[in-house]
Each structure stands twice: as structure tokens, then as C-alpha cells.
Amino acid sequence: xxxxxxxxxxxxxxxxxxxxxxxxxxxxxxxxxxxxxxxxxxxxxxxxxxxxxxxxxxxxxxxxxxxxxxxxxxxxxxxxxxxxxxxxxxxxxxxxxxxxxxxxx
Length: 105
What we know:
The chain has helices at residues 2-7, 13-30, 34-42, 59-62, 78-87, and strands spanning 70-71, 96-98, 101-104.
């Protein structure tokens, strides 16, 4: 745009912009960008765009309803903690709460 303004070719701005837009769309439709191809040729690690994923389930359908928590407000004794860990050995962690307030995981 600056070059067209300096040369006095203001009437060419819109056709020039349309030509660039069409060229970009055609280029994107025919192949990947040159930099993407260069990365593949060199074998560099490259993260492609993630696919858009649409979830059909609701949160309440996949969440656990009978949740085991560790209530630090009740000040559990070591024996109670050990029993909790033994009874739920397959769990990877427990939500830590203080009464009804979430403290951590």
C-alpha cells in the first residue's frame, strides 16, 4: 500500500489486494506452505494444528458421583489415612477438602 501511495497508483490498491487474496487462497488450496514443507524435509519436530473436537457428552454424564475425598478439616488420624489409601489403591489421587471448600488435589 505504501509503494502504491508513493507512486500515485491509488486506483490499483483494490485490484492488487484482490489479486493477493485470490493467490493466497489458491496457494493454500493446492499445497501446504513452503515453511511447513521445509520443516518436513529437514525432519524437524513439528506440531500440526489440532483437529476441532466436538464433545457430545455432558460433564455430569462422565463425572464421578460417589467421590472419595480427604477432609483435612476433620483432622484424620494416620490410621484413617492409611485405611483410605489401602481401600482405594487404584486411585491416583484424592480431592483435598476442608468441609465443603476445595483445597487441592
